[in-house]
Amino acid sequence: MDNKLISAIERDENFMRMALEEARKAGERGEVPVGAVIVDEQQKILAAAGNNSIGGSDPAGHAEMVALRAAGKKIGNYRLLNTALYVTIEPCVMCAGAMIHARVGRLVYGASDPKAGGVASCYQVGGDGKLNHQLNVESGVLAEECAELLTSFFKKKRG
Predict the structure, then answer these.
(1) Which member of 64, 138, 144, 148 is catalytic?
(2) Which of 27, 34, 42, 62 is the 20 to 30 Å CA partner of 110?
(3) pLDDT digits over 33-87, tens only?
(4) Cα separation of 85 and 107, whole Å?
(5) How far apart are the first and last CA of the chain?
(6) 50: nearest Cα among 17, 80, 78, 21
(7) Can you tell me the distance from the alpha carbon of 93 to that of 117, in angstroms, rounded to the nearest whole number?
(8) At what angle do helices 3-28 and 63-75 cross, to 10 degrees?
(9) How far, in Å, CA of 88 to CA of 130, rounded?
(10) Is there a catalytic annotation at residue 64?
C-alpha cells in the first residue's frame, strides 16, 4: 500500500474519531449519539457537532445540520465547496439534501443506516445523478465503533 493511501486512511479515521467524540458528548446529553465534523481542503476543522434535536427543540438538529450551519457561519458562505463531512452514521435524506445544497465535496460516514439511510441504504441522494451536485461518498470508516455506540445507547434507553 502506498503512503498516500495510508495517510488518507489515517486522515479519515482521525476525523471519524473526532466525530465519535462529538457523538459521545451528544449521548451524554441524552441525544441520539451521532457526531459530525466538517473540514476544508487543507484539513482544517470548520465545525464539529453532535445531535441536538432534543436540547434545541429542533427537528433539524441532526449533527450534520448543526455542523453545516456552523461551518457556513465560520466561512461566511452557505456553499461549502471542497469540504469533507465526517459523520458517524449514514445521513438521512434531510441531511443528504442539505449537503447537496451546500455543495459538500466528500461525505465520509461510519455505520450504515438500513432504516433511514439517505445516501446508500434506502435512498441514493447525491449519488443517483438526478441532482445538480453529486457527493463523493466513502462508507464504513470505523463502522463497528460507530454502530456499537448507537446500539449500546438504545439498549440502555430501552432498559
Answers:
(1) 64
(2) 42
(3) 999 999 999 999 999 999 999 999 999 999 999 999 999 999 999 999 999 999 9
(4) 5
(5) 45
(6) 21
(7) 7
(8) 110
(9) 26
(10) yes
**Continuous segment of H or E residues that includes residue 37:** strand 35-39
Q: Which three cell numbers stand for residue 152?
A: 449500546
For strands 106-111 and 45-50, give the pairing: unpaired
How far is Cα 117 from Cα 34, in angstroms, rounded to an integer? 13
Q: In whole angstroms, what is the distance from residue 45 CA to residue 48 CA?
A: 7
The pLDDT assigned to 98 comes to 98
Say which residue, 117 or 4, is predicted with more confidence. 117
Number of H helices, E strands in the chain: 4, 5
Helix (H) or strand (E) holding 147: helix 143-158
Per the structure block, which three cell numbers stand in for 96? 443528504
The string of pLDDT tens digits covering residues 110-139 is 999 999 999 999 999 999 899 999 999 999
pLDDT band at 159 (very low <50, low <70, confident <90, very high): confident
